[in-house]
């Protein structure tokens, strides 16, 4: 994801984490709103524990002591919580900034997954997000680690299930007299 701009202030993004220090400056740089004070609150400690229950979400917060990226870095969920902790008004600015960046991202493109997957050798791991219908891939910024062979098995199983459901539906229609027995692929019994 590209850097966010909140109230004319750039918020750096590093390893999919956002600089709470940059957010602090954008909010007015008040001492009472320093990121370290936020991170030490009980509710936020609980939120961090909850986020860390979901390994697919990645690291929730990271403190860097020195170097070009020093400061407190947090995932999007903690950025929202931090903004709300500062003020409802600042929270809205942060939500709108995220919405603006998200709306600028390319939309899912319709791809033939069979062609994409068949070009990759078995055992290849690639970064992709496949939507619920299995017909769209999202750009790499929305990613899940997927084993191509697993996707092939899921596609094969989905085809088998669809064929079984179609055959069952035809059998029911034949039993009810709505469908000719000659059109069944398998014997009725």
From TrEMBL:
Domain (KilA-N): residue spans on this chain: 1-101
Q: What organism does the UniProt record list as the source?
A: Marinomonas aquiplantarum
- Name of the protein: KilA domain-containing protein
Q: Which InterPro entries match?
A: KilA/APSES_HTH, KilA_N
